[in-house]
Every structure is written in C-alpha cells, then in structure tokens.
Task: structure prediction
Amino acid sequence: MIRNKWLKILKTFEMDVPIRRLEDYYYFYSKVSLTKFCKRVEMEFYCGPLDFDYENDNEWAIAETDDFIFHISRAYKRNTYHIQTQSVPLGCNYIVGFTVKDIAGLDYDHNWYNAVGPARWEKILGDLSCKSVVNERKNPIH
Result:
C-alpha cells in the first residue's frame, strides 16, 4: 500500500507525465492548516481525498484524477519558497499547483478553465482569508 502511494506521488513529478494542457499556480500566505485548506479544495473541485506527506521545510498534499493534478504545498516558515525560488513572492507560505492534463476530456480546455477555475480558487482563497495572493498561469507549448 505504501509502495502504491509513493508510485502515485512519483508519477506526478515525472517529466514524461502526459503533456500539460494548462498549469495554474497560486502563491499566498495563510494561517490555515494544510488539512483544512485541502478539505476546502476537495469540496470545491470534487477531486477526492488528497495524499499527504512532509519533509524538513514543508508539508504537501497531492491528488490526481484522470483529468487533473492538484499539488498543494505549505512551508512551515514564511519566505521558505522565496529563498528557494525567487519567482515566489516574499511572505508566501503556500504554493498551489493545478494542472489540466493533455489527456483530459475535450471539455476541459482553456475556455472551460477561464470560465470556472479562477472563480473557484478566488472563493476558496477568500473563504479561508488568504493574503498576498499571486496567480501565475502557464500555457505549455505542445
């Protein structure tokens, strides 16, 4: 069982995961626990339970469906991510990555995401009083 969980986590980080149709990242600060934040994501996106893990500097959760990958990471200290990656703004302790896989159903395209994605994330972030929110959308070339 543990082996299967690790295989699932490793699959998420593989470079040969099907080409990504869309990647959306949110960087922000929140006092909310990772567990509470993830419960809210599960309710909003119906992604099923997330798998949790941790290391020295942060804790994270991952969920993968046939169409999407959710990766939510929370640093124990502010600015940990900024020190590691200058593109992450100062003061942020959360990084949320949302990926629409290239193999996702045809309905899950940029138009679909533009219509529903940002509003869902804004609702989650607002409901949980997240601060200093920065959004970065990546449209991979393929």
